[in-house]
UniProtKB/TrEMBL annotation:
Protein name according to UniProt: Metalloprotease PmbA
Species, as recorded: Arenimonas caeni
Domain Metalloprotease TldD/E central, chain residue ranges per copy: 129-235
GO MF annotation: an example: metallopeptidase activity
Location of the Metalloprotease TldD/E N-terminal domain: 37-101
InterPro entries (alphabetical): Metalloprtase-TldD/E_C (IPR045569), Metalloprtase-TldD/E_cen_dom (IPR045570), Metalloprtase-TldD/E_N (IPR002510), PmbA (IPR047657), TldD/PmbA_N (IPR035068), TldD/PmbA_sf (IPR036059)
Top-level taxon in the UniProt lineage: Bacteria
Location of the Metalloprotease TldD/E C-terminal domain: 242-450
Keyword flag Acetylation: no
Amino acid sequence: MSPAIAATDDSAPRLARLSEAAREVLRLAAARGASQADVLLNDDTGLSVNVRMGEVETVERTRDRGVAVTVYFGNRKGNASTADLQPGSLEATVEQACAIARHTEPDPCNGLADADRMATEVREFDGWHPWTLDADGAIALALEAEAAGREADARIANSDGASVHTGDSVSVYANSHGFLGAERGTSHSISLSLIAGRGDRMQRDYWYTSALSPDDLESPVQVGRKAAERTVARLGPRPIRTGEYPVLFVPEMARSFVGHLLGAVSGGALYRKASFLLDHAGKRIFPDWLGIEERPHLPRGLRSTSFDHEGVATVDSDLVRDGVLVRYLLSSYSARKLGLQSTGNAGGVHNLRVGANARDLDEMVRGMGTGLLVTEMMGQGANTVTGDYSRGASGFWVEDGRIVHPVDELTIAGRLPEMFQSIEAIGADVDPRSHIAMGSLLIGRMMVAGEA
């Protein structure tokens, strides 16, 4: 598939309008006596279609705007928002934020990030790739993906539908330090969910492709065939006995463990003392070969940016080095609460890269001997306060380094601190559909609850 790229680009006038509104908001806040203020404005558009069994189910076009205003009167803070860029609405929103601030309790940690931390250069990182796709074109792609999936195997009995989405977003953040940063980005995806088998032996699975540029998407036929292959592979699951086994997670499941790490080292969890990694900066929490890097300036990175949600300049830095937690993830507020400095992570992390010590999934399956390959997890059983971990899982049973049959309705359990230390391998088979770039992950021992 080689989709056409849009010949026209309306991002410049949209950003100009948002920038003008941002300056007006800051002027209105200063005129009302606010000592500091900031504003985040966004303008998003999108097209989404869904088809099922060869029929169109939904076609949706969206256009969303938002203005979020924060004002400070000393250490008192007020927030208000609107979806209207008209002058009267902006004035009313600023007035409301000021009224709220005057009635809140002062907090010495409130305020903008320090002025000397503001980004001095705002760059683009090849994230703007609009797609000239109308509703008919999107429907055709979705129908093509579904047809490819349904025709790939006679055991495909039904479809949960295919979807195509394309969208763009432009945004401006500005504050009373004189900082104004404008950004723009696009996102596109094709997905399909299929059902194989009949009666109580049915199995469901899916596949999707997503990217900033339509040129980087897999074709609808590829999406359909992968969805079909994954779905029929799940037919005929067999039980396994409860016990402790090596557990191997495919990349899209593996990155959830990085998500648990991020939750535990975020400033909000730390200053509330609600993290199993409290006071762990400078301590080894992973095997000594493991590293995690934050790279916010990658070309075409999914979370590339010159500045965070407070205007603080982003920089390349390590989160984990040689298994040691190097730093936390801090906004200016959480940093002040902890007596530390902002890490430029207000709003989250930007493009994490997790180091590998193995090759691909096939090699890791061969090397694990006997154990569980997890391809899907259910539930929210990870507690980043205590470190306890328990989730539903399904996937495949591995014996003598080869997959022998599918399994489902399992529970995998452990404690995150021990699980982190028990990581034996991370593959180089990186899934490109996430800002957390990592491959498959092998944990040497976990409790797997199957049959008694």
